[in-house]
C-alpha cells in the first residue's frame, strides 16, 4: 500500500472525514443581508479609493475555513504517525538454544526433573535474537531468530516427551539456522547414544561458539522395561537392571504378577496374559525414571475370533492352519446345515453345490453386514454364491505364471507359487491382490460396508502353497483382516514412531486430540483412532540407560560473540504534526481576534 511508505498507521487518516461537516457548514452558512445606509454610503463614496475588492473579500471570508482545515489535517496526520526512514546501527547477540526433550530428561532430580532444570537455564540464556530447537525423536525448529519475548514463549511451550531423542540432528539443525557470530547453547543430559559430539565439532569448525550444559542428576540404579513380545494372548516383557547392585522387581498386569530378579547389567523376562481390552503393566517399586517403569498394552475387547468353515470335503491344511492360531475359535460344519450369524468369519471351502442351502449363503451376507468377513475358496464346480463371488468362473486352465502381487496387509512379503490348475475368470468386484500374467485374479478382496469379502483362487489339490511355511501366515492375516481385527503387534507400538490415520481424522492421544493423516507417538499411553485403540510405550535400551558420563573440558566462554547490524528504521514525525496543528489553532485565534469575533 502506498500510504505505508509515509505513515505507520494509515488507518488514522480515516479521521479526515471530519472535514466534510466543516465544509458543509461553510456552504450552508447564509450570506449577509445588504442594507442601504445613507450615512455609510456618503462615507464610502468619499473614500472610494479604499473600497474593498470583491475577490479579496471572498478570500478573507474563506481564510478561516482554510486555517481550520489546516489544523484538522495536521491533527489527523499526527494520528496516522508520519515517519521518515533513518539509518541505525544495532549491536546484536544471537543465541540458538537446543533443548533436549527426549524421554531421559524426565528423570526426577531433586524437586523436579532434568527437563525442568534445563528449561530454567535456557530462559537465562535468551538474548535479543534467539532461536529454539527441540531435540526429540526429530529435530524441531520451534523458533527462528525471534525476540527475547518470543523465545521465552517458545520455551514455555516445550515439554519432555516419552520418545528416544536424536541430539545430533538437533545440533546440526541449530548450526544450519545460526547466523554468523552466533552461539549455540545445548542443554541436555547427554545420555543420547547418537554421535552428538561429531555435530558439535562440525559446528565449531564453522566458527560457531557451542556451549554444552549438562543436567544428569538422578537416575542411578534405574531398572526399566526395554522390550516386549506377543505370542497368542500373552505378552513377554523384558526388563533390564542398569544399576550397580542386584535388583528385584514385581511386574503386574491386570491382577497377574511376576517377580524378576536381576544382577547388575542383567536382563530378565516375564510372561503375562493380555487381558481383554488391554491394560497397563507396571514395575514396582518404581524409581527416578517412571517412563520405563510402565508398559501400555492395547488389545481388542473380544480376544476371540470365531471362524466357521463350511465344507463337504474338509481341507485339512486349511483347518490345521486356522487351529494353530491362538485367537481363533474354529468350527467346521457340513452343508446342508443351519448356520447362526454369531461368527466373525465364514469360509466356504470344497462345498458340494447340491448341498449348499440358500440360507448358508445368506448367513455369509449377514456376517458381512455386521462387520465380519466371508472367504470363498475356488473349486472346479463352484456353487452359486451370488454377489459374494468376486471372480466369475469361466473355465479351468493349467500352468499359469504369477504376474503381480500387490502390497497388502495379507499378502505383504509372501511368495505365492503358481498352481498347476486354476479357475480362469474375470474380476467382478473388489481389488485383485495376486494376478496371473493372463489377467485372472488368484487372490482378491473387497470392502463391503463395514464388512469384507475374500476370494482365494488356489485349489488345494492343484497348489503347492499349502506346503509352504507362509501358508499359515497368510490365513492368520486373512482371518484378522476379514474379522476387522488388528494383531497385538499392530496395536502396540514404540514411542518415537507414528500412527497412520485418515485425512483430517481426529486421534485421541495421551496429551489431547491430534489430526491425521499421521500422528507422532511422542507420549506413552493409549491412542484412539475411530473405534480402535493403540498403545505406545518407551522401548529403548539406550534411552533407559539414563546415567551419562560427565562432560570433560567444557566450560562457558568468557566473551559471547556479537555483531553490528546496519538497518533503516522509521523515525516518527508525530510531534512535528502536532506542532503544526497547534500553530494552526493559534493562527485561527489570532485571526478571529483581529476580525473582532473574540
Automatic annotation (TrEMBL):
Gene3D superfamilies cross-referenced by the UniProt entry: 3.40.50.880, von Willebrand factor, type A domain
Cross-referenced PANTHER family: BLL2463 PROTEIN (PTHR37464)
Keyword entries, A-Z: Membrane, Transmembrane, Transmembrane helix
Residue span(s) of domain DUF7407: 223-296
VWFA domain segment(s): 95-190
Residue ranges annotated for the Aerotolerance regulator N-terminal domain, each copy included: 7-82
Domain DUF7408, residue spans: 306-477
Record-given protein name: Aerotolerance regulator N-terminal domain-containing protein
Pfam families documented for this protein: BatA, DUF7406, DUF7407, DUF7408, VWA_2
Ranges for domain DUF7406: 485-536
Superkingdom of origin: Archaea
Segments passing through the bilayer: 6-28, 63-85
Matches recorded under InterPro entries: Aerotolerance_reg_N, Class_I_gatase-like, DUF7406, DUF7407, DUF7408, VWF_A, vWFA_dom_sf
Amino acid at each position: 500500500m502506498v500510504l505505508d511508505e509515509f505513515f505507520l498507521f494509515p488507518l488514522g487518516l480515516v479521521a479526515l472525514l471530519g472535514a466534510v461537516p466543516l465544509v458543509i457548514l461553510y456552504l450552508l452558512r447564509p450570506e449577509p443581508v445588504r442594507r442601504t445606509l445613507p450615512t455609510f454610503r456618503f462615507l464610502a463614496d468619499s473614500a472610494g479609493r479604499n473600497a474593498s475588492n470583491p475577490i479579496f473579500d471572498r478570500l478573507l471570508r474563506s481564510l478561516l475555513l482554510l486555517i481550520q482545515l489546516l489544523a484538522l489535517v495536521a491533527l489527523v496526520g499526527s494520528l496516522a504517525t508520519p515517519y521518515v526512514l533513518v539509518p541505525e546501527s544495532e549491536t546484536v547477540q544471537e543465541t540458538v538454544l537446543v533443548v533436549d526433550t527426549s524421554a531421559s530428561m524426565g528423570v526426577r532430580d531433586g524437586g523436579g526433573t532434568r527437563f525442568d532444570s534445563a528449561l530454567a537455564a535456557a530462559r537465562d540464556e535468551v538474548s535479543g535474537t534467539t532461536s529454539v530447537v527441540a531435540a526429540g525423536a526429530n529435530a524441531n525448529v520451534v523458533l527462528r531468530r525471534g525476540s527475547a519475548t518470543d523465545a521465552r514463549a517458545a520455551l514455555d511451550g516445550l515439554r519432555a516427551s516419552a520418545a528416544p531423542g536424536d541430539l545430533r540432528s538437533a545440533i546440526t539443525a541449530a548450526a544450519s539456522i545460526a547466523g554468523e557470530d552466533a552461539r549455540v547453547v545445548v542443554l541436555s543430559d547427554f545420555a543420547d547414544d547418537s554421535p552428538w559430539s561429531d555435530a558439535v565439532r562440525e559446528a565449531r569448525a564453522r566458527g560457531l561458539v557451542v556451549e554444552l550444559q549438562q543436567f544428569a542428576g538422578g537416575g542411578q540404579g534405574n531398572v526399566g522395561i526395554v522390550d516386549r513380545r506377543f505370542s497368542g494372548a500373552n505378552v513377554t516383557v523384558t526388563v533390564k537392571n542398569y544399576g550397580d547392585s542386584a535388583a528385584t522387581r514385581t511386574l503386574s498386569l491386570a491382577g497377574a504378577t511376576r517377580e524378576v530378579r536381576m544382577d547388575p547389567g542383567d536382563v530378565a523376562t516375564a510372561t503375562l496374559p493380555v487381558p481383554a481390552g488391554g491394560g497397563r503393566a507396571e514395575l514396582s517399586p518404581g524409581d527416578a525414571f517412571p517412563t520405563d517403569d510402565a508398559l501400555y498394552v492395547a488389545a481388542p475387547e473380544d480376544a476371540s475370533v470365531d471362524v466357521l468353515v463350511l465344507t463337504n470335503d474338509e481341507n485339512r491344511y486349511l483347518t490345521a492352519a486356522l487351529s494353530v492360531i491362538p485367537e481363533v475359535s474354529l468350527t467346521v460344519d457340513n452343508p446342508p446345515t443351519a448356520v447362526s450369524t454369531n461368527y466373525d468369519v465364514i469360509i466356504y471351502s470344497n462345498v458340494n453345490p447340491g448341498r449348499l442351502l440358500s440360507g448358508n449363503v445368506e448367513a455369509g451376507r449377514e456376517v458381512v453386514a455386521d462387520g465380519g468377513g466371508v472367504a470363498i475358496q475356488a473349486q472346479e464346480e463352484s456353487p452359486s454364491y451370488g454377489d459374494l463371488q468376486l471372480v466369475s468362473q469361466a473355465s479351468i486352465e493349467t500352468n499359469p505364471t504369477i504376474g503381480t502381487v500387490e502390497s497388502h496387509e495379507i499378502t505383504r512379503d509372501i511368495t505365492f507359487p503358481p498352481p498347476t490348475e486354476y479357475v480362469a475368470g474375470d474380476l467382478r468386484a473388489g481389488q485383485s491382490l495376486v494376478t496371473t500374467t493372463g489377467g485372472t485374479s488368484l487372490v482378491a478382496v473387497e470392502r463391503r460396508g463395514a464388512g469384507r469379502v475374500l476370494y482365494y483362487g488356489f485349489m488345494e489339490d492343484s497348489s503347492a502353497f499349502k506346503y509352504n511355511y507362509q501358508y499359515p501366515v497368510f490365513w492368520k492375516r486373512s482371518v484378522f483382516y476379514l474379522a476387522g481385527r488388528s494383531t497385538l503387534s499392530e496395536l502396540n507400538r514404540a514411542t518415537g514412531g507414528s500412527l497412520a490415520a485418515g485425512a483430517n481424522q481426529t486421534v485421541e492421544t495421551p496429551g489431547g486430540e491430534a489430526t491425521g493423516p499421521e500422528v507422532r507417538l511422542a507420549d506413552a499411553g493409549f491412542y484412539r483412532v475411530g473405534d480402535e485403540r493403540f498403545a505406545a510405550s518407551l522401548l529403548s535400551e539406550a534411552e533407559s540407560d539414563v546415567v551419562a558420563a560427565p562432560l570433560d573440558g567444557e566450560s562457558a566462554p568468557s566473551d559471547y560473540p556479537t555483531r553490528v547490524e546496519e538497518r533503516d528504521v522509521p523515525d516518527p514525525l508525530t510531534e512535528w504534526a502536532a506542532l503544526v496543528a497547534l500553530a494552526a489553532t493559534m493562527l485561527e485565534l489570532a485571526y478571529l481576534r483581529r476580525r473582532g469575533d473574540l
